[in-house]
Amino acid sequence: MNTSRRSFLKGLGLGGVALSTPKLVFAAAETIVKKEAMLPEPKGNRVVIVGGGWAGLTVAKYLKKEAPNAEVILIEKRPNFFSCPISNEWLADLVSLDFLSHDYNQPAAKYGYKFINTTVLAIERDKRRVYTPHGYIQYDYLVLAPGIKYNYSAWFKDNKDLIKYTMLHYPSAFIPGSEHLALKRKIWNFEEGEFVITVPPGAYRCPPAPYERAAMIAYVFKKNKVKGRVVILDPKPEIVPKGPGFMAAYNELYAGIVEYVPNAHIKEVDPIKKVIKTSQGDFNFTDANLNPPHQAGELVWMADLIAKDKDGKPTGWADQDHLTFQAKSDPRVFLVGDVIGGVPYPKSGHMANSQGKIVAKIIAARMMGKDITPALPDNTCYSMVNGDPQEAIVISVEYSFNEKEKKIVPKPKVINQRSQQLAKATYEWAKGLYRDMFA
Length: 439
Ligand SMILES: Cc1cc2nc3c(=O)[nH]c(=O)nc-3n(C[C@H](O)[C@H](O)[C@H](O)COP(=O)(O)OP(=O)(O)OC[C@H]3O[C@@H](n4cnc5c(N)ncnc54)[C@H](O)[C@@H]3O)c2cc1C
Description:
Layout: H1 3-11, H2 22-33, E1 46-50, H3 54-66, E2 71-76, E3 80-82, H4 87-91, H5 97-100, E4 101-103, H6 105-111, E5 114-117, E6 122-124, E7 129-132, E8 135-138, E9 141-144, E10 148-150, H7 153-156, H8 160-169, H9 178-189, E11 192-198, H10 209-223, E12 227-233, H11 243-253, E13 258-261, E14 266-270, E15 275-278, E16 281-284, E17 287-289, E18 294-296, H12 298-302, E19 306-308, E20 314-318, E21 326-327, E22 330-335, H13 349-367, E23 379-387, E24 390-402, E25 407-419, H14 420-438
Parallel strand pairs: 1-2, 1-9, 2-5, 9-22, 11-12, 11-17, 12-13
Antiparallel strand pairs: 3-4, 6-7, 7-8, 10-18, 14-15, 15-16, 19-20, 21-22, 23-24, 24-25
Flavin-adenine dinucleotide (FAD) binds at residues 50-56, 75-78, 84-85, 87-88, 119-120, 145-147, 174, 205-206, 209, 213, 297, 299, 337-338, 347-350, 352, 381-382.
GO molecular function: flavin adenine dinucleotide binding; oxidoreductase activity
Domain Sulfide dehydrogenase [flavocytochrome c] flavoprotein chain central: 182-282
Protein name: Tat (Twin-arginine translocation) pathway signal sequence
């Protein structure tokens, strides 16, 4: 069985039984394989983008601008868009849900791409098809931008009950949806005790987000005069980025409320007894925001496009060209946003949006038979650290390519001095990017 056939079956949840129970495979596979989704024949190249987040939405809009004759289809499983950026401010009631929520129809109508609200269940790269519950869709180019998935197995191996229990009782809220609503309810109902936040090890979505979240929760406790402490368990030796800015806020605004614990490598999580065993000791919690390690979204695994380390073990992140975002093993597939690996780019909405514009230009050029020198993306990330008055800190990073060493080199600029001016700029930044993707 070839690789993409195997990954296709895996996508249907049938990878392990393919050879021993062929009838079952055929019955289930046939219902999807034989049916082509009802779409008009494309007039030009068809580009299918899976994932309507910060990366996918940007590719869809800018590809239509760069290549108006291409048929661009954006597939997203959620009916509407909820922004993780500014969600920490929303947890602290500094903005309304409206600020974070956007609809998919307006940009699709305005920019002329097709929006399909469905889930991609499997990918067959050798046939250039993505499979949905409504049938398969054929592509000339495929853009995979599914964001991240949680890796609870790092804590619980294959104990599904513990994984489910943790997801239900201590939601991470690094993927938007009900988890955010549940987390907000927890924070505002918290009465007394220790509220623990775990920082994921390795690469994870939005490096400053757990520290900003801790500041916003501490702000809520302080405002509501709750006798609670926020304990941050961080595997890193110090906060990165904006460490001095976060530490100043914790010490000056939330003394006695926030405890920052560096070098806290998690050994065991017991969500039932409410204890986390770490290299810095055991921590009991009253309530928690438990954030497991992150990995590239499931679709990248399904498509067999995960990079391997030198021992042949999956790194957890996509194996794409560092400059063109093209899958190393498949020139028809591009990987954008939080899924990518092997580059010094943070996993951020700003970064995903910036990459999306570059990828749109590259695909448009490829369709015209041209090669272009890809630009490098950039990043800006504000973090709110105070709610009254609202005050923020910021990092912005430009990147250059060192030809000699064939390396992407970051040049960061950080403002650790919190200010109301930066708080204002935070919302202007968000509005600017929402406008870019939706208005
Ligand atoms: C609390 C928090 C705060 C943050 N703050 C900031 C900030 O201030 N600034 C900043 O720049 N970034 C911030 N981020 C990071 C930012 O949210 C992510 O980096 C960004 O969302 C990545 O974009 P993406 O397109 O790669 O993934 P996403 O935005 O997650 O989009 C992926 C999409 O793919 C869809 N999808 C997945 N699988 C399928 C499938 N099989 N079929 C169909 N659709 C599928 C998902 O539903 C999702 O909509 C923050 C994140 C968090 C959690």
